[in-house]
Amino acid sequence: MIKDRRFDVIVIGAGHAGCEAACAAGRMGLRTGLVTINLETIAQMSCNPAIGGLAKGHLVREIDALGGVMGLLADETGIQFRLLNRSRGGAVQAPRAQSDKARYRKAMRYRLKNIPHLTVLPGMVREIIIRQNRVQGVNTIDGPPLMAKAVILTPGTFLNGLIHIGRHSYPAGRADEPPSTHLADQLKILGLRTFRLKTGTPMRLQRDGIEWSRFTPQPGDEIPVPFSFRTKRTLVNRVVCHIGYTNARTHEIIQANLNRSALYGGGITGIGPRYCPSIEVKVKEFPHHARHQFFLEPEGLDTEEIYVNGLSTSLPLEIQREVLVSIPGLEDARILRPAYAIEYDAVLPTQLRPTLETEAIENLYLAGQINGTSGYEEAAAQGLMAGINAALKIQRRRPFILRRDQAYIGVLIDDLITKGVEEPYRLFTARAEYRLQLRIDNADVRLTEYGRRLGLIGQEDYQAYREKQERLARVRRILRTQTANKSAKGRITLQDSLKKPHISLRDLLVTHPLPEILTDEEIRHIESDIKYSGYLKKQAKEIARIRKFDRVRIPPGLPFQAIPGLTTEAVEKLRKFSPSTMGEAKRIPGITPAALINIHIFLKLQAAGRRQSASARPKAAGK
Fold this sequence. Notes:
Layout: E1 6-12, H1 16-27, E2 32-36, E3 50-52, H2 56-66, H3 70-77, E4 78-84, E5 94-99, H4 101-113, E6 118-122, E7 125-131, E8 134-140, E9 146-153, E10 162-165, E11 168-171, H5 182-189, E12 194-201, E13 204-206, E14 216-218, E15 241-245, H6 248-256, H7 279-285, E16 293-298, E17 305-309, H8 317-325, E18 335-337, E19 340-347, E20 364-366, H9 376-394, H10 408-419, H11 443-454, H12 459-481, E21 483-487, E22 490-493, H13 494-498, H14 505-511, H15 520-531, H16 533-550, H17 568-577, H18 582-586, H19 593-616
Parallel strand pairs: 1-2, 1-9, 2-6, 9-20
Antiparallel strand pairs: 3-5, 4-5, 7-8, 8-9, 10-11, 10-19, 12-19, 13-17, 13-18, 14-15, 15-16, 16-17, 21-22
């Protein structure tokens, strides 16, 4: 029994968002309570037990550079590691790891147990206590109130969760766990606009029933790349994943039973993810494809469960069995857990501030799937930022907001609060305008100093970071000054040679060995910096120009209705939000680039008019 039920921060939900939020707030010195229904499912990987991937791997690196925990745990519990796009440029390379889901949960529980000022509380929150539009704490179903200065809500898919398997539906937050209906109803009463989203998961198969020789092995990398800059041990691949394909018979079965799918039978109203569709969507929407790829991925070292990545479905269980029988190698596979779809409530994220605090309720923060995102990584990034900003506000410190040119985390949050979502949001490298400088290899350079100032990067890790930067600076100095060869045009340095597309740093090291020992990733980091240097300089100028534009002041009481070209909707939104700068105006949902240009022209004309009036006034006579 908890004697003192007063906290600085209460986090509701112990998924990936909740765990990062609680760890951050606790490590920043705030008394933090993490409330979860089931202690055994903390950091549960309800879908694929994998971390990272394109853009998602960038998020994990950034979380790690700021002092978050996901990267460390991915390295600690990973059983297969791959660097995606290894043959392409550094801007689009990203790590991915298949994790042992049971070990990941266990590792997170151990981590939470050892965070100072953090208490994990079993229970289910039925209501957030709010007085005068300000958070006061929470009421649980089975205990006295928990009082707090801030609440971070990270419910995942639990808000009015509804699971579908064929035409059978039942309320659940995920398989075998109850949904949260009280909280979902309260958010609507508070005036927060919600909408329904849908996601799903494929069946889990028993390992022994699969004829593995019928599938193509997909081993991990020979030299695994860690997620965390702080990982010291050598990573080891423990499993091999396999690639398989559907066929014409599979597609016939699915087409013949589309009306029995919850998705096409009218059972689901929520919007599903465009970039991770169920197999019935693939078959119906892409009939010209003769087959669809899927992956057989182990869920851990001590479990028989195999995750069938790519066969997510809401078809009835008996049809799921027929689908498997149609695929050579899966005829005798046994379904341990059926595939299902789940609908849940999400909150329109345009109702949030850049700190992830709601505009309507002071000190209420939202993070994770409640904001319309999909994926563990997007959730963890939001959780970390919500935890940091809740702590900073209580400590009366400036909020911590990352710009789009600083981090993928900045891109993610800016997209959510300014553009909103109509379907489960997934981060891609293409969403980042400045992806050449938002690489996995330089996440520590971009963010570790912030993590240190926030109190999330310890002295030992910070010292290791500083020593690494000093070593890389010495290498760069050698590359700038050492001659590679001489030509008719003069002396060519190693750095000049490296700018040529067909020359790699490894090539140069063969003939010009360095006194410093570099890791593979440090080699890629230096090479990317040099090869992209011209583009990065152009981007820096563009970023400076945009930041200058964003700082342009909008005077109080500006008559937006008098600005030519602004729509009625734009005028109403500008009046409502009363932005004080162009940057604030840009972040208002629905304010278009054209509207911003019109405002800027109007401000320039006003300034020119004032200057002209001032010059026309007679000057005071001198003494």
